[in-house]
Design goal:
heterodimer, A: about 325 residues, 15 helices, B: about 350 residues, eight-stranded mixed beta sheet, 11 helices, about 30% helix, about 25% strand
């Protein structure tokens, strides 16, 4: 196991290096260059003596963009391995500080949605599989399909219409109510939580379908296995057959897919965050990217890449924990 | 009800509905088992043979009520299996066990062997808790497994050892009756012999009764006291093993037996080659189900179902060849209606 882990970690580091290189090249060649935009703005200021081309040269030197792609990447890498990601061009604060400011909104939102998704989708999938082709199965399937098919903005708009406009229970968007600052800390918490209800619900509705279908398919496969028939022939209670024999075997693929989706918790939900005016990481990184903010984007994508690699590693480890056949090999 | 019999099967039927793809309404039935009767004496083995798809396995599973019947009765020790409630049936399960064909897929890959064998023992409280470990070890040893196998997982074993695990699993519940559903078909010939001998010695030791389902006639001849031959969901011949193998009556049985390979290269076999393939059990031929492939097919066979009757003492057969009275077809149809 130790050997396997070492191998996997070393491989991950190698992959990470190349991923970051590709991203740097892409960012470097983006048409929306932050430096060009800034240079153009500066050259148009009254009283300036320098042309746009001169500004570009100066800014390139200032921002360390005059060393070419390879040189620039190596410089970035040199600082990144020491944990220094520099200052964001667009946000004009330290990259890590800005990230720290926004990530927790996204994480909270995604985490709540993730838990709800599992709690709702997995049991529904199991029930649908147990009663295959029954009314329950069809109902669950249709609801799942609706969830998968509807675009985020549509779901969000419908939710807003019901809960904010018609019922008036929740604010239509934003993260804080009007009187947020006057509330006690408990009141502040409740207020924030209330503003996260609709975004979380939106995420759950659009993601629940695939997990539910996935659970159902895997459960069906296991339920038709010979050893389930053996378990029934042993005279075990049906409950034990389902929960102990069948569900345990469904867990392997479930853990793999859920483990691999852990990084998405930090990835941010761009559309949902924008629709509900939540200044999370999805919204922030998107703004950085379209403005050509190389330091922030590089940091964010490096972070995401590490999460994906860690996610896969976790999935592999969990897989080994859940399946004795993998454990031995 | 004869108390000598551990199992009595009476006109058992199992039809599987055929569903249309889209609306899933029933558009027909596969008559997997179509009116079968037999009984098994306590402590004996009945072999059940027939081609693939003739309904052998369905008989085994239906009579343990692993799948629900369409019609007919099964009595075990005088107890009507299909009259039991789900809970009563579950309590009854340990007494009637099954060994499946495929030892690879019939063991849960996630449980250690000790747990596979012991789980139901604990559930049904076969032995007191303090004797549990000892009991499992004893059962495992009886089946040729070692104590240290307990903590291993099924994938660490070979096919033969896995089948031993399956047998130990069934045996641990202290059953009276075991359905062996092609228990050796997936194994090498050398391993087959070991497993067959193990089953036989366990039978002597514990007084078990078996229903031994197989398509391997040599194996059936070796292990069975009586043999039933099935064709397309119906029993065509039934007798004790010796008289069946000495003097098969039904043309189908003759054809089957002529296919047994002889371990003698000089022996000229007189093969009866059956023409065509087995008809669909969803739409079986009328009259005798076998008439489409029978060498000795007569006019009467095409429209009249032959009666399953005792042709010689203890030797049952469903064939018009042995119907001395040659019953009038019209009369027989009426008799069937009644």
């Amino acid at each position: 196991m130790a050997k396997f882990l070492t191998k996997r970690i070393l491989l991950s580091i190698l992959i990470l290096f190349f991923v970051m290189f590709i991203i740097y090249v892409l960012m470097y060649s983006l048409p929306s260059s932050y430096i060009e935009n800034t240079a153009r703005n500066l050259s148009q200021k009254p009283g300036t003596q320098k042309s746009a081309a001169q500004w570009i040269a100066e800014l390139n030197a200032q921002y360390g963009m005059d060393k070419g792609v390879i040189g620039g990447f190596m410089t970035w890498m040199k600082f990144a391995v020491r944990g220094e990601f520099g200052e964001s061009w667009y946000w004009t604060t330290a990259v890590t500080a800005k990230f720290n400011d926004v990530i927790w909104y996204s994480f909270t939102l995604a985490f709540v949605a993730f838990i709800l998704e599992i709690v709702i989708a997995v049991p529904l999938g199991v029930i649908a599989a147990r009663k295959q082709y029954s009314g329950v199965d069809y109902t669950v399937t249709v609801i799942a399909l609706i969830g998968i098919s509807l675009p985020t903005f549509f779901v969000a708009t419908i939710l807003k219409m019901i809960f904010a406009v018609k019922l008036g229970w929740l604010d239509i968007s934003g993260m804080q109510g009007r009187y947020f600052l006057q509330l006690s800390s408990w009141g502040k918490f409740i207020d924030l939580a209330k503003h996260f209800i609709m975004p979380a619900l939106t995420l759950v509705i659009i993601s629940i379908g695939s997990l539910m279908r996935y659970t159902r398919t895997n459960m069906l496969e296991v339920l038709n296995a010979d050893y389930i028939r053996t378990a029934r022939a042993k005279g075990l209670p049906e409950k034990r057959v389902i929960s102990y024999h069948a569900f345990r075997n469904t867990l392997i693929p479930l853990i793999t897919i859920l483990g691999a989706s852990l990084p998405t918790l930090f990835g941010g939900a761009l559309i949902t965050e924008t629709l509900f005016s939540i200044t999370g990481i999805g919204f922030t990184s998107y703004t950085s990217m379209i403005n050509g903010d190389i330091p922030f984007t590089m940091f964010y994508l490096a972070f995401s890449s590490v999460l994906v690699l860690v996610g896969n590693l976790i999935a592999d480890i969990l897989y080994a924990v859940a399946d004795p056949r993998v454990r031995v090999n | 009800m004869n108390m000598e019999n551990i199992i009595e099967v009476n006109e058992l039927r199992k039809y599987f509905p055929i569903k249309s793809n889209f609306f899933r309404n029933t558009i027909g039935h596969v008559k997997a088992v179509d009116g079968i009767s037999f009984s098994i004496k306590r402590g004996t083995t009945m072999g059940l043979v027939g081609e693939s798809g003739c309904g052998k396995s369905t008989v085994g599973r239906t009579l343990l009520r692993l799948i629900e019947r369409t019609d007919g009765d099964v009595y075990m020790d005088g107890q009507d299996i299909f009259a039991l409630s789900k809970e009563e049936l579950r309590k009854m399960r340990p007494r009637m066990q099954i060994i499946f064909q495929d030892p690879y897929s019939s063991l849960s890959p996630r449980l250690p062997v000790g747990e596979i064998i012991g789980e139901a023992v604990r559930e049904h409280k076969i032995v007191p808790t303090e004797e549990f470990d000892d009991y499992i070890s004893r059962v495992m040893r009886a089946c040729g497994l070692q104590d240290y196998h307990k903590d291993r997982y099924p994938h660490e074993f070979s096919g033969g050892q896995r089948q031993r695990i399956c047998i130990a699993r069934a045996l641990a519940l202290n059953p009276d009756f075991i359905v062996c559903d092609e228990p050796v078909s997936a194994l090498d010939v050398s391993i087959q012999a070991q497993i067959i001998n193990l089953l036989k010695s366990l039978q002597d030791q514990f007084g078990l009764s078996y229903l031994f389902i197989s398509h391997d006639l040599s194996v059936v001849e070796h292990i069975s006291d009586t043999v039933g031959v099935m064709y397309l969901g119906a029993m065509v011949e039934y007798s004790d093993t010796d008289s069946l193998f000495e003097k098969p009556l039904h043309p189908y049985t003759k054809a089957l037996f002529s296919a047994i390979p002889m371990p003698d290269p000089d022996y000229k076999m007189e093969r009866v080659i059956l023409e065509g393939s087995i008809p669909s059990p969803a739409d079986p031929p009328c009259g005798c189900k076998f008439h489409t492939r029978c060498r000795e097919c007569m006019e009467i066979c095409k429209d009249t179902i032959p009666e399953y009757r005792e042709v010689e003492k203890g030797h049952y057969c469903a064939c018009h060849l042995y119907n001395e009275t040659k019953t009038d077809p019209a009369l027989q149809k009426e008799a069937k209606k009644a």
